[in-house]
Amino acid sequence: MSLQALPPLREALQAHGLLARKALGQHFLLDLNITRKIARLAGPLDGVRVIEVGPGPGGLTRSLLEAGAQVVAVEKDRRFEPLLAELAAAADGALQVIFADALAIDEAAVAGGPAAVVSNLPYNVGTPLLVKWLTGPFRPRSMTLMFQKEVAQRIVAPPGSGPYGRLAVLAQACAQAELVMDAPARAFTPPPKVDSAVVRLNPRTDAPEPALLAALQAVTAAAFGQRRKMLRASLRPLGGEALCEAAGVDPSARAESIPIEGFLRLAAIRLAEPGRR
Q1: What is the DSSP-derived secondary structure letter of residue 190?
Q2: Torsion of CA 77, 139, 180, 224, to 10 degrees
């Protein structure tokens, strides 16, 4: 059977008696017009190794395969094993399915080389997975990821805006982040209570090295952990006013007004302290 001969996703779900599980944050994207758009937004995929987390019934998986990608799909819910086996059989060797927790896998070993990540992420693990890919040993060549819209807005938020916080600093220090597509709740089965959006992240050539990245996480955790306080107070455990002055950052400012470059300077000064490396 070819990909084109596969039954519609809704029919496949009904045939296998599969319903979304709320506990796993599952909302199925069954409209292949939408999944094909996501695949296009991921860039040219012909021959590209792609990791997809949470394929579920395989709507986005089908579109990635149609685009010529070599897909490694990581799924936690074994209920989808028969359905994804049918898809793998139709993919002529272009789809490998791994049943595992994506938070625990070694992506570099799974991919066997450079890989992009393209996923409609389960809502309950979207942010932890993004942080893992931004800060861990596996650095994707690009990421095209569906989040609930509130999280997507936090990733791309500029300094001074309401959603700006730790996630924005971390994401934008490591990647060029752009919100590229909105997806209303009605596009999913069952519809979630919130809308979703797709964020495209391309790694920066000047992304922080691991030690600086660890310092950046410590600084932003302190600064945004008490975001209504001035930095001289919120950063007191890390050096407070002296740290700010050494980094050229106003100690009376609050975290949401500090640009990415300011946080990187704070992290660099913190890292340069004796015994920090």
Answers
A1: S
A2: 90
Radius of gyration of the chain from its Cα atoms, rounded to whole angstroms: 21
CA distances from 194 to 30, 127, 145, 149, 266 (A): 17, 16, 16, 7, 36
Domain extent listing, the chain: 3-203, 210-272
Query: Could you give the C-alpha distances from 106 to 53, 270, 277, in angstroms and in order?
Result: 13, 30, 26
pLDDT per residue rounded down to tens, the chain (277 residues): 588 878 888 888 888 787 778 777 778 888 899 999 999 999 999 999 999 999 999 999 999 999 999 999 999 999 999 999 999 999 999 999 999 999 999 999 999 889 999 999 988 899 999 999 999 999 999 999 999 999 999 999 999 999 999 999 999 999 999 999 999 999 988 888 999 999 999 999 999 999 999 999 999 999 999 989 999 999 999 999 999 999 999 999 999 999 999 999 999 999 998 765 5
Sheet holding 116-120, edge to edge: 95-99, 70-75, 49-53, 116-120, 143-148, 196-203, 175-183
CB burial string 45-56: b at 16+ within 10 A, e below: beebbbbbbbbb
Which fold would CATH assign to domain 3-203? Rossmann fold (3.40.50)
In degrees rounded to 5, what are phi and psi of residue 200? -105, 125
Residue with structure tokens 């690009």?
142
Query: Is 52 in a helix, a strand, or coil?
Result: strand
**Residue (of 166, 111, 169) closest to 140 by Cα position:** 111
Which residues have C-beta within 8 Å of that of residue 252, sequence separation ≥ 6? Answer: 230, 231, 232
Structure tokens at 66: 């149609």
Tell me which CATH code domain 210-272 carries: 1.10.8.100
Give the DSSP letter string of 225-238: HTTTSBHHHHTGGG
